[in-house]
Amino acid sequence: MSSDIRPAGDPPGGRRAVAVWGIGVAVYFVAITYRTSLGVAGLDAADRFEINASALSTFSILQLLVYAGMQIPVGLMVDRLGTKKVLGLGAVLFTVGQLGFALSHSYPTALVSRALLGCGDAMAFISVLRLGSRWFPARRGPLIAQVAALIGMAGNLISTIVLARLLHTLGWTPTFAGSAIGGTVVLVLLLLFLKDHPEGYEPEPAAHHHAPGFVRRQITAAWREPGTRLGMWVHFTTQFPAMVFLLLWGMPFLVEAQGLTRATAGELLTLVVLSNMAIGLVYGQIIARHHRARTPLALGTVGVTALVWGSVLAWPSGHAPMGLLILLCSVLGACGPASMIGFDFARPANPPERLGTASGIVNMGGFVASMTTLLTIGVLLDATGGDYRIAFASVFALETLGVVQILRLRGRAQRRERERVVASRVETVHVPA
User: Fold this and answer.
1) Residue 319, SS3?
2) CA-based R_g, the chain, Å
3) CA-CA 20 to 30 A from 7: which of 76, 269, 277, 317?
4) Quick one: 412 exposed, middle or buried, by C-beta within 10 A (0-12, 13-18, 19+)?
């Protein structure tokens, strides 16, 4: 019997799978820490580089522009090169970007550093999704993805709790330069211990990857699947309110518009992260057990987010009561877990060799929405003299667009998914013993 025959079925999972996958998640954890570090340093960055609200938002916009633009190329790279190489390159780039940001004294240099960071960050999550699909059974996919996102969001806690305090005690350069040590540590662990897949479960040789027109065919095939497009719009509609709040505008809004202290505002940002982690576990369990709950959970999250967001903006005195702000931050915590539902639409719609590309398309959705909203809020704040009510109301336009697209595509995606399930069962029945 040939020694290269692969075992049938899904990877077994187990402790070794958790250990290897955990290294990948640790890289993602550090990437999230670096990505969100500007969220607690926005006011400091404005003073350090002497810039206004529009210029400040450009930091995050450029970072997300690079991130979103890299999603499909990164998906293709993961499908072609494997997880370890792409994740390692990402760790190098976002660590160099964070260190460069620490040492920057001019606005252009800082922008280049954030772009580099965004490029490396773009390589983390899709690689971790691919790693999970290679090491764990498919039935664990929704829960594994939610847990990865949950642990990654813990990196946000490092930003909102640790980096925020260090920034005001040690200063800009020591804080950001010191945080770059984390990227070096996870890079070493990755190079020493991470493997793309368990022994015996390597993917089939992919000589067609080098065939002419492969990239175009890969992207076209993934995009034609209604599940991929539905996943992108779910990600687009659900993720961006919390992303905008955490990444840049939450701290200025709570301090300047709501009159809170920085300490209190930091605690509310921390609540968003804690809520995200708790709700992520709940959503992962629900979707793993009840696949039909995906669309209701996504649309329900959008509806509740819009309701509470609007209530805060419409409060008569302009300063919403603390209870309502706590509710807002708790509800924003559901946005991240809801956005993960997008990947649960794309996963069954695409074969394993196309999953990286499909995940890249889905992941573009929320970051394009976040980038658009970050820019819009910055421009509106400058145009209105700092009116957060008008600026933050721009969120509703993108939510409306996304809901319309979700409702348009959900029936088509469900029919296509049922067809795939039936075809898979027929193939299983006709496989010779």
Assistant:
1) coil
2) 21
3) 76
4) middle
Q: The domain that contains 49 carries what CATH number?
A: 1.20.1250.20
What 1-8 contacts at long range (C-beta under 8 Å, 24+ apart), as own/partner pairs, is 6/200, 6/201, 6/202, 7/200, 7/201
Helix (H, G, I), strand (E, B) or coil at 105: coil
What phi and psi values does residue 342 have, to the nearest 5 degrees? Answer: -55, -40
Convert 292-327 to b/e letters by CB count within 10 Å (16 or more is b). eebbebbbebbeebbebbeebbeeeeeebeeeebeb
pLDDT in tens, 273-323: 889 989 988 998 898 888 889 999 999 999 999 999 999 999 998 899 999
- The structure tokens 């005690």 sit at 169
- CA gap 153, 29 in Å, rounded: 7
Answer yes or no: is 204 within a domain: no
How do residues 97-106 score in pLDDT, each as one tens digit?
A: 999 999 999 9
Task: Provide the number of structural domains found in the chain.
Answer: 1
Give the tokens for residue 374: 């970050």
What is the CB-side half-sphere exposure of residue 121 using CA atoms within 13 A?
Answer: 31
Is 5 inside a domain boundary? no
CA distance readout (Å), 433 to 4, 12, 427: 19, 22, 12
Query: pLDDT tens digits for 148-168?
Result: 888 887 887 888 788 888 888
Residue 205 lies in a domain: no
One-letter amino acid of 405: Q
pTM of the model: 0.79
Between CA 208 and CA 218, with CA 214 as vertex, the angle to 5 degrees is 110
Residue 230's contacts (CB-CB under 8 Å, 6 or more residues apart) are 342, 345, 406, 409, 410, 412, 413
Which amino acid is residue 133, in one-letter code?
Answer: S
Q: Which domain holds residue 135?
A: 15-197+210-421
Instruction: List the end-to-end C-alpha distance of the chain, in Å, as a whole number.
Output: 16
Q: Please, what is the average pLDDT of the chain?
A: 87
And the tokens for 136?
């764990």
pLDDT, tens digit, 9 for 90 and up, residues 6-26 = 444 677 778 999 999 999 999
Residue 7: inside a domain, yes or no?
A: no
The residue type at 277: M
Distance CA 363, CA 231 (A): 9
pLDDT at residue 431 tops 50: no
